[in-house]
Amino acid sequence: MPVNWYAALVLIVLLGIGSVALAKIEYGTTSVTLPTTNTTWHAALAFDICGTPQAALPASPTGGSAGLTTTGSGILLITPKGPSEAGANATLGKFASEYTGLTLTNTTLRVPGAKALVYTNGEKCPAGTPDAGKKGIVQARSWVLSTTPGKNGEINEVGGNTTTEPESLSLLNRQLITVGFGPAGRPLPKPPGTTITALLQVLAGTVPVATTTLPVPVSTPPSVSSTTLPAVRSTSTTSSSPSATSTTKPKK
């Protein structure tokens, strides 16, 4: 047989082996975007309207189909129940769409409450607020509590970036989020110390994650006030100001 025929046969075999090897490599390195339906994450969420902190959202109802919920006290429970809540779909906007009374887009914000006003980009902050008369925009600022302790055992807090597209902000484990409406040049504050403390306690496993308001039991439950939590050391950056480092202790 001609030599070219053997050469072609060898080439075909080599290409076949290479294709199989490449397929195995690609299969073995397929990445999974968290969170998945087997993930349980916790984060903290706060709201600020024109410089005025808002009350934490009440706990989401139990037994619902939503997997992105709040347990009250400003704590988010991120446990996707399907593809629409998992991976890149686990966003602040998705949470808002599943929480009755809360409206959040990149241009509008409505927080449940007594007044429950809808704030739209370009509107002026109402009278009686610290930013009264100033035009505001909807924005969000986020941080993440590091898992690596600092020199003195404090928890490193990194981030502080502001986005004007809060609807697409990805939810992360150990995340601190403040959503607000106000002047573009004013950085949003971190969630209240009580909210950060509640998150630290949940992450440490010192208090249960409650989703309903239960009657006060007859017996006195174990106190969690004696739990000493590490200080939170923040390294915050925003697009409008240089980075700053501070050490604070969340309020008990």
Short recap of the structure:
The protein has helices spanning 3-28, 92-98, 193-204, and strands spanning 41-49, 52-53, 68-72, 75-78, 103-104, 108-110, 118-120, 137-149, 155-163, 175-182, 232-238, 241-248.
Structural class call reads alpha+beta
Cα-atom radius of gyration: 24 Å
Shape, please?
elongated
- Assess the beta-strand content as a share of residues: 25-35%
Per DSSP E runs of 2 or more residues, the count of β-strands stands at 12
Poorly predicted segments: 211-228, 236-252
Distance between the termini: 87 Å
The helix fraction, in percent, is 10-25%
Order of helices and strands: HEEEEHEEEEEEHEE
Main beta sheet strand tally, sense and closure: 9 strands, mixed
Name the average pLDDT. Answer: 80
Query: Counting H and I runs of at least 4 residues, what is the number of helices?
Result: 3
Topology, pairings included?
Layout: H1 3-28, E1 41-49, E2 52-53, E3 68-72, E4 75-78, H2 92-98, E5 103-104, E6 108-110, E7 118-120, E8 137-149, E9 155-163, E10 175-182, H3 193-204, E11 232-238, E12 241-248
Parallel strand pairs: 1-10, 9-11
Antiparallel strand pairs: 1-2, 1-4, 3-4, 5-6, 6-7, 8-9, 8-10, 11-12
How would you describe the overall organization of this protein?
The chain is α+β, with helices and mostly antiparallel strands. The chain has a domain at 41-143 and 163-192. Helix content is 18%, strand content 29%. It is built from three helices and twelve strands; from the N terminus they run H-E-E-E-E-H-E-E-E-E-E-E-H-E-E. The protein has helices at residues 3-28, 92-98, 193-204, and strands at residues 41-49, 52-53, 68-72, 75-78, 103-104, 108-110, 118-120, 137-149, 155-163, 175-182, 232-238, 241-248. The strands form two sheets. Strands 1, 2, 3, 4, 8, 9, 10, 11 and 12 form a nine-stranded mixed sheet that branches. Strand 1 and strand 2 (52-53) form a beta hairpin. The model is unreliable at 211-228 and 236-252 (pLDDT under 50).
